[in-house]
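User: Quick sanity check before I run a bigger batch. Here is a single chain. Can you write out its predicted 3D structure?
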Amino acid sequence: MQETKIVLPDREIPRQWYNIMADMPNLPKPPLHPGTKQPVGPQDLSAIFPMALIEQEVSTQRWIEIPEEVMDIYSLWRPSPLYRAHRLETTLGTPARIYYKYEGVSPAGSHKPNTSIPQAYYNKKAGIKRIATETGAGQWGSAMALAGSLFGLDVTVYMVKVSYNQKPYRRIAMETWGATVHASPSSVTNSGRNILESDPDNPGSLGIAISEAVEDAATHSDTNYALGSVLNHVLLHQTVIGLEAKRQFEIARDYPDVIVGCCGGGSNLAGVSFPFLRDKINGKELRVIAVEPTSCPTLTKGEFRYDFGDTAGLTPLVMMYTLGHDFVPPGIHAGGLRYHGDSPLICQLYHDGLIEAQAYGQTAVFDAAIRFAKSEAIIPAPESAHAIKAVIDEALRCKEEGKEKTIFFNLSGHGYLDLAAYADYLSGKLEDYEYPEEKIKEALSKLPSI
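Assistant: Done. Predicted structure follows.
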């Protein structure tokens, strides 16, 4: 019988997170204060983040210790399995070897608890009582609600309205873990009320939801803000994925030629690729591909500029590929990929040529998801299906060229709470949408001049 999965024992959960800032050829430019436009200092962030996370945000130390309390909770689902996709390889008739790390085994069904657990831990240690956060498709909100329940923190989630309506079971999961969930834009915050006043039917965006959550945290002394992607400390926490995978590839006596991850803010792509990118920076031959939707083409069509991380301009300005902070993407089903910008770390690595980027329409992505589900049995999240589409294309290219390559991707979550999206696809209701160049130019024209 052929080996299908590699499962590590609990004792091999990484005991440290890997910080790529120790090895990057060029560090991102510093974030700037939204008012003064001067570099942000720790005191500027202390109103909404605990100092331990602020220290991780700016650290260039290569290895950061994982607290024992976090390790104990990680062991509920970590280490996650590494699968060899034998059946998909056979279906495609490719000489490529395809592997995937399956993060859908977490209690919340995605990679997001890898950072929600440590964020809740550090906030609890700092004496915080409540967390305010946003969520797109609901995976991050679910993960933060779970973490809050484990550490005794109240959690308030601002969920992008189009996803709030498309994915009621994500909301129910959050509420089951004790969170309060608002459809964003909401009437709860000034940011939300201002947007609803000018556009009562606004479908919401991650930028708007971030504005609401940041405002909530900044106006309540017992509340901090938590973000599920983009920030350095979030990407740091996700490196447990790639660190485990490196050990699993050692056992498989293999090593990736190509690493693929879907990319919204950048956390799962970073988690799976950063430990391997350290090898690339040191001379190893390796390709890393970020995959995004054509309806929100941040890396492939955005500009490398300073921009706000939110719509209302409450957050620091960060150097990133952006479509403009007031960009409102269409309501595609991959809600976790509907963000106007990307992680500054991902953007700098892309700018330096260490990462590639591709964009796909959602019908091709769901074609790939169905193909994967029929061969590997797991129904993937719409976000993860973007990576699957790129993997299939790479594997078919290997078939055409007669090349044996090892392709590795992060199956960052399952799609069992996204079946409404599959229903739309199967009934022919899904449409592709490529965001018009003129709309992108219009949004970019409103960026602050730095």
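The domain at 5-9+67-109+233-444 is CATH 3.40.50.1100 (Rossmann fold).

User: Great, the batch can go ahead then.
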